[in-house]
Structure prediction request, 133 residues.
Amino acid sequence: MKFSAAFLASAAALLASTLPMATATPVAARDVFVPPITYPHAGTVWYIGQTHNVTWDTSKAPVNITNGKGIIMLRKGDLTTPVILQNNFDIRKGRIEVRVPWVVDGSDYKLVLFGDSGNFSPNFTIKGSGVAW
Prediction:
């Protein structure tokens, strides 16, 4: 059986007219809180085994934060390591204590603070392993 182009076009139009009109569901406005890390700062030196208070500026925090649970990870050079220094804390806190892990000595460490998004501290130094990379 052969169908003409006109018949197929008519059938498609009829089918389209009987289907409910698809509408996009509006996306609620999302807040993104990217608090700048204030400590450690450039020039900071940490030693393995010490504890430090990582701090960040919460003065511009939105009232409602989509993801209010924070994670702090260690970054070396251009790579975020799998080392989690602290997690599951309230990002609105503005500070959290961490223990410096055993890592190779280096001056190219950063912290990554994740919550709504990730942001990096300036480079700082970790010493004490006796191993340089």
Summary: The mean pLDDT is 85. The beta strands are 37-39, 45-47, 51-56, 69-76, 79-90, 95-99, 106-114, 118-120, 124-127. The longest strand covers residues 79-90.
